[in-house]
Each structure stands twice: as C-alpha cells, then as structure tokens.
Amino acid sequence: MNLKDCHNYKDFRKLAKKKLPSPIFHYIDGAADDEVTYARNTSAFDDVDLVPNVLRGVESVDLSTTIFGKKLDLPFYLAPTALQRLFHYDGERAVGKAAQKFNTMFGVSALATVSVEEISSMIDTPKMFQFYFHKDRGLNDSCLERAKAAKFDVMALTVDTITGGNRERDLRTGFTSPPKLTLASLFSFATKPMWGINYLTKGKFELPHLQDFVKEGTSTNSSIGSYFSTMLDQSMNWKDAEKLCSKWGGHFALKGVMSVEDAKKAVDIGCTGIMVSNHGGRQLDGSRSPFDQLAEIVDAVGDKLDVICEGGIHRGTHMLKALSLGAKACSGGRLYLYALAAAGQAGVERALGLYKSELERDMKLMGCKTIKDLNRNNLRFRR
Amino acid sequence: MNLNDCYNYNDFRKLAKKNLPAPIFHYIDGGSDDETTLKRNTESFLKCDLVPNILASVGEPDLSTNVFGKKIDMPIFLSPVAMQRLFHHEGDKASARAAEKFGTFYSMSTMANSSIEEISNISSGPKMFQIYIHKIKGLTDNLIDRCKSSGFNAMCLTVDTVTAGNRERDHRWGFTTPPKMTLKSILSFMKRPKWTFNYLSHEKFQLSNVVHFTKKGSSIAKGVMEYINEQYDPAMSWRDAEYCIKRWGGPFAIKGVMSVKDAKRAVDIGASAILLSNHGGRQLDGSRAPFDQLPAIAEAVAGKLEIILDGGIRRGTHVLKALSLGATACSFGKGFLFALGAGGQKGVEAILQIMHDEIRRDMILLGCKNIKELSKSNIVFR
C-alpha cells in the first residue's frame, strides 16, 4: 500500500498505521476512556441526511469562505495539533506548505515542533496560533509576542484541557514525547525502521515555543496528559481569557466551547470565533459531539462570531452538513494527521485535494454553487 | 497481566477471568435469561451526552457527598454482594478495608462469609447491611439487632429477589456454593490452582451471619437460586419492610425499587433511601435499566428520600451522568468484584482509586467544583 492507494480518510489511517511505531499511531488514533465521544463525533453526521436540489446550473462551484476576516479557498482548515514531527520528520513544515498550496488556514500548536518564526517565513497564507494558558506567565507572554511578531492572523485559546484526558491507549503503549524506550516500545520502533532513521537523522526534536521556559520542552519524557495537568493553569477563568483577548488585539477564538451559555460569554469578552469541539474525543468521554451541539450554538451566537465545527469530520459531506447547519467553516486534526504520517507534505496535499474534490462534487450534486447556498433546508434529521 | 496493567473495568474483568475458576467468574459476569437488561444497564448511559462548561476555575473539585447520614469522600460505594470469599480468600474483609481507605460505604450481604461482628471489628468506615427476609422466624430481628449493636450505619432491604432469576450461565457451569464437583467444574478448578489452593487453605466457607440459624448456611450443596427460593419469604410485603424500618430506626433503603409508584410508597413507609436497581440484570431480564428510569424517579421523589443508582456503572462519567439527573450517589457490584477477584484488597483499592481519579478529572473537565453543581443542564439526551 502506498499513497496512490489512499482514496479516503480510512486509507490514510491504514497507511499511517503501517508507517508509525505503534505508540505514536495510537497517540493520534486514540481518545479518552471508552472512546465513546470519539466514535460519536463521526456517527453524529449519520443522523441527518442531505436533500439535494436539481436543475440548478452548477457548472462551477466556489468553495471559498471567509473566517476571522480572511478569505480561504476551502471551507475547512487544518486544526492545530501538537508534536507533528513525531508523525513525520517534516512535521509542521509539511503541513504548512500543503495548507499554503490550497490557500487555507494552518493552525500551529503551542506544542509545535517548528517555531512560529520559521512557519511565518515559509508561508504567507492565513495562520492561527493555538495557545495554552500556562502557569508560567512569562511563557504565556512570550508565546503571544512571538505569534504577534510573526504576523499570525488568529489566536485560539484552548479551554478544554484544564486537566489531561484519560487516554488509555497512551497508558498502555507508554507514549511520551520524546518517545521513551521501554522494551515494548523499543520493539514497536524496531519494526518501523524508516520512522526511526528519519526521526534520529532529520534534526533534533524540540518544542521551540516552550524550550526556554520548561524542561518538558526539550528532553524530559513527558506524556501530554501529565503536561496538561502539571504545566497548565487550572484556575484559568473568563477574566484571564478576556485579558488575553484584549492583549492579543486581533482575531481571537476559544477552542473547545460546547455549551450555549459559554458561547454567549465568548461573544461578551470580545472573541471573534469559537471552535465547537471536544478535542477530538480526547478529553471528556461521554461529552456531546460538536455536530450534535452545533445548531443550538449557531442559533445563539452565529451572527455574532464565527462558529467553527471541529471534530469527527472524515468526508466532504460531513462538512456540507455542518456548513448547512450554520458553521462558518470546519476543521480537523486527524483529518490531515494520518496523511502527514503516511507521506509528509505529499500526503497532506493528497488528502486536501481529495476533500476538495469531494466538496466540489457534493456541492454540485446538492445543487449549490457557493457555501452561502447551503442552509438547513438541505437537511432532514432522521429523528 | 497483573494489577498494574488494569486501567479500567474491562481490564479488571479480564484479570479476574484469568484468576477465577470458570463457574465463579461466570457467576459474577452473568445475568438472567439473554442478559439484555445486564447489557442495557451500561448502554443506557450512552443515550445522553455531557456538555461541559469552560473557564470555570474549578481548582480542586470536592467529590464528597452525604448519604445515609454520613459524609462520604466519593459519590460511589460498594453494593452488597453475597459470598465474596469465593472471589478472593479474604472476601468481605478485603472489600471493607478498601472502602474504609477511600472513605466510602462498604455494604454487607446477609449472605456474607464474614460476620457482622468480624467486619465491625476490622473497619470503622461507613457500613451498610443488606437484609433478606428469611422464612425462619427470628432471623430478621436477630440480624437487625446485631447490626445495631455493631455500629452499622445503614440498612437496606432487598426486594427484587422474591424468586431467583434464571441465570443460565450458572446452570451450564454447575455453579453451587460451596462448589459442586462435576467433571467440567473439577477441570475448571484444576485450571486455577492458585485460587483452589487459597480457597482450601484459608478459613472454611460459611454464611457467617445465618450459620447459627440454618444448617444450609454452612453447606449449601445447592445453587444460590435454590437457596433463594427455599430460604427467602416470597410473601414479603410492604408491611414487612415497614416493620424492618421501625425496628432498625436509622437510615434505611429499599433495594430494587424500579417503579415511580413503589418509590412513592417507599417514602410513605418511612424509608430514607431507595437503591434504584434491577439486581445488576440478574433477576428479571427485559426489565428497565436504572439509569433509564432515573429521571422519572427523581421527578417523583427527589428531596423526599435519597436515590442511589445501582447498576451498569463502569466509568466516572457514568457516575456524573447519574448525579446530574438527580441521584444522590451510585453503587456498584461487578465494578469492584472483578477487582476483588483480580487482586483482593489491593484490587478493590485500585478500582476505587481509578473511579476517584476519573470522577475528579471529569468534574474538572465538566467545569464543576462540587457534586451539588451537577445538574440536568450538564446533559443533553440524543
């Protein structure tokens, strides 16, 4: 199996599984507790059906959408994810370049393995910086300033990682970053020699946004869960978010809003967007899926800020359903991470190309020329 | 596989399966008939989702709650389970010690292998006694009075075992207590030599609380189901329940209430709590799951008595969902029994630690500082 055999999300996942040492694959592929929410994030889309309109003259389709004041050529973007160089040695470099090629937004995590400065010098398309509120205020300030200086367009504060989720696959595989070599993990690394060679020879693994401030940034083996629980400020409240929002001074989003009440508060503190997200099912298992919750949120705040539907998206039709309910755009992590692991930049480009052609085809079949044509009349809920 | 590899219920179950002779494992693991109710008890939690609140500045959440007039450190406790000596040679002693360590209720079954007095001597933690009304006169009074003088905090009367459920796995495996030796069962015991050694080399199996009243207590060469049918009084009525409540005079729960009408009746006769339960799916198969029934029960009697949700709980989030819908606390049987089978007291401590950590973590992620903050507004039904 190689990249040419990848025709959808599941194929990329399969190829990624072949290429990655198992602790790393399961870090991407896994979620919290029984992974009930993770499964629901995608199956939620099956509870609603699309109703096409015919004879609409749809020879050309415009997929562009505007979020955070930026026009994107696609109605979805690449959500920030941590540690991308673990998945492919090019990491954020590969993902950023692919995003630029398709003119969509690239989300860079605070736990990225390539610096904001380097990303910024590499691509000139829209960029989002994802921010964790650390106990160390110096670190917070430094992140904000560097992202500002690097001309990032949007700041997204993650609010659903107050403590680490219970990712049992990581507990079983002993996933830490950089990878800890136990007997079991050593075996899994030994069975994927190409990954190992690339990991060791293509530059040192580092977390450039953190390394001046924390040991965890460089060499200490630390799981993501314990990182969240020990490094992040659990007392973070709305005042802190409001201060960050005004300090940043540009487009500011809260990532991980699920309740209507919180969505309204996000408007009040001056956010220009929210990501309706449960962190890909990786935090609170048993929590509601973004797509299930989307309509209520859009009804409450859809005209006041950009509502992004994030999580569970595997298909163009999933995006069309979310956009029809009123999301301004969609985003996803695994959406491109398996592809990154499967084949680096070429993999991500192939994935983005596939989603793009799915969207074009499905828009035509729906009888819609622009994203604005999508609305709730296109949808029927089964129950 | 050992205790360190156990991260959740399923892991403990797997380890218990490795440790226990098959008839005993299946006695814990099985339900009645087609086990549809057993399955639904857990699946029912999946039909609603939690909606977290963010930026709530939770800090360190308070997991404590009040039940049966006692403050407990976490909102889940150990349901009463018969014959725990079969699952680990330390039996009830292991469970009671572990519960005490975590500041939560241990519950003793009438059919326990340790006596009321023995457990009272080794644990000063909160304790509930589960009573069955036996046909033998005097036994009920004797049990109530002994619990009183031994300092038990609460009592519950089980009302869903008027006749025994059809536990087909027990038929197939020839489960009796003490174990009956058929060719198939002998083989299964030989495959678990460590269990068999511990079972034979420690104190004799007996139903310590009733041994003085019935010789059946020391040697039930028949199945549990037959014991239930022979010994328990099927004519038990609300009047008997009321009698027990009066004689006990303290916090008293009716265990196995499912209908709204019966919940109201429990209030009327002066019960301080109900255990909303179908006996872990081991009695009437096809009956409703406690979690499915919870909203209706809470609407009818919340505030008038304490509602304990018993059945199907595997995760901290299940507990949080039940509390959000109006349960005062939860209890589990299989949840700790597999852990007991997996590793004795250490096993039960491990599962309690995991449940504690899950509830704590999930409250933080949900944005709740204490149990009181959990409400219907946290939940959306699909």
The SSE string of chain A, one letter per element, is HHHEEEEHEHEHEHHHHHEHEHEHEHE
Instruction: Please give the share of residues in helix of chain B.
Output: 40-55%
Which runs of chain B of at least 5 residues are low in confidence (pLDDT < 50)? Answer: none
CATH architecture of chain B: Alpha-Beta Barrel
Task: Give a description of the structure.
- Chain A is of the alpha/beta class and 383 residues long.
- Chain A has one domain (3-381): TIM Barrel.
- Chain A has helices at 9-19, 22-29, 36-43, 91-101, 116-122, 137-149, 168-173, 183-190, 193-201, 224-231, 238-248, 260-268, 290-301, 316-325, 334-366; strands spanning 48-50, 65-67, 70-72, 76-81, 106-108, 127-131, 154-158, 251-257, 273-276, 306-310, 329-332, 379-381.
- The longest helix of chain A is centred in the last third of the chain and has 33 residues, at 334-366.
- In chain A, the strands form 3 sheets. An 8-stranded parallel beta barrel of chain A has the order 4-5-6-7-8-9-10-11, surrounded by 7 helices. Chain A has a two-stranded antiparallel sheet with strand order 1-12.
- Chain A is built from 15 helices and 12 strands.
- Chain B has helices at residues 9-19, 22-29, 36-43, 91-101, 116-122, 139-149, 168-173, 183-190, 193-201, 224-231, 238-248, 260-268, 290-301, 316-324, 334-366, and strands at residues 48-50, 65-67, 70-72, 76-78, 106-108, 127-131, 154-158, 252-257, 273-276, 306-310, 329-332, 379-381.
- Chain B is α/β, with parallel strands linked by helices.
- In chain B, 42% of the residues lie in helices and 12% in strands.
- The model of chain B has no long low-confidence stretch (mean pLDDT 93).
- Chain B has an 8-stranded parallel sheet with strand order 4-11-10-9-8-7-6-5. In chain B, strands 1-12 form a two-stranded antiparallel sheet. A two-stranded antiparallel ribbon of chain B has the order 2-3.
- In chain B, helix 12 (260-268) packs across helix 13 (290-301).
- Chain B has one domain (3-381): TIM Barrel (Alpha-Beta Barrel), CATH 3.20.20.70.
- Chain A binds chain B through residues 33-34, 36-37, 40, 159-160, 162-166, 168, 171-172, 234-238, 240-241, 254, 256-259, 261-262, 265, 278, 283-289, 292-293, and chain B through 5, 7-8, 45-46, 49-59, 314-315, 317-318, 320-321, 357-358, 361-362, 364-366, 380, 382.
